[in-house]
Amino acid sequence: MEGGFxxxxxFTLPGGIPVTETVTTTWIIMAVLIGCSYVFxxxxxxxxxxxxxxxxxxxxGIYNFTEQTMGQDKIGFAPYxxxxxxxxxxxxxxxxxxxxxxxxxxxxxxxxxMITFFMIHGFGMKKKxxxxxxxxxxxxxxxxxxxxxxxxxxxxxxxxxxxxxxIVGGTIIMGLLYGALAAFxxxxxxxxxxxxxxxxxPLHLYFDVFAGLLQSFIFTIxxxxxxxxxxx
Amino acid sequence: xxxxxxxxxxxACSAIGAGLAMIAGIGAGIGQGYAAGKGAEAVGKQPEAxxxxxxxxxxxxxxxxxxxxxxxxxxxxxxxANPFV
Lengths: 232, 85
Known about the structure:
The complex is a heterodimer. By secondary structure, chain A is mainly alpha-helical. Chain A has one domain (about 10-230). Chain A has helices at about 20-40, 50-70, 80-95, 105-130, 130-135, 145-185, 200-230; strands at about 10-15, 15-20. A two-stranded antiparallel sheet of chain A has the order 1-2. In chain A, helix 2 packs across helix 3. Chain A is globular and about 70 Å long. By secondary structure, chain B is mainly alpha-helical. Chain B has 3 helices and no strands. At the A-B interface, helix 6 and helix 7 of A face helix 3 of B.
């Protein structure tokens, strides 16, 4: 296990800034998402057919989901919610294609949860006014203020570590399994690690597809709940 | 037998600590099992609300999982990013 399970440094920018696998995989995901949005949203027809049907179902689903969770008056958050659910979903699924998922790096998840943190407080202040908002911290008694502040600071950390821990745990278990299968193949006297072919499939299904999609859903729904609670 | 150096002792204790940190998994397991049990109960009472119940149950299970994940992160830090070495 040389170097542990941290993100590999792919190249170093002039000036000594290391560019890790996380960043390059994020670039690939960004390129795929931008390419898909460009290709699939060109020449929309009045009567949808083919891919347009799928896109309409997806966008409608995200709008309905936002409306159900946050309420009719906060439907304007739907584009952001859609963006993060698609981005985190693609990031978690990128493990299927042999990449290291960008969400298996605490920098990515903490960045995403800081966006949520600033959204909670920014929109809370905008909706209620700064004075009323800050007064909310002293409820129900003024003595509860430190606890309330710590509770607010814990939200982004728990969001970030939930996503990070789930994905990195899956990555480590998959790494250990691949290593063990390779070692076992060598023991059997086969130079090609043939055992790696089909055995990891159920674990990929669980850790990448099920846990990955579930965690992207959890992250977005917790973001929505926190933001709409701060605004109500 | 060679004498144990300080660094080796720290590494050994870190490995034990990582194992102990994973005891946190018990809490997450109990919490998730409780959520699933209550979810099953709710579906039994109201089978028509199954979709909503599953959504709420998964959310609750994920929140209950958080403490277990904290334990996992402590274990990972002790194993791969040990601050004491």
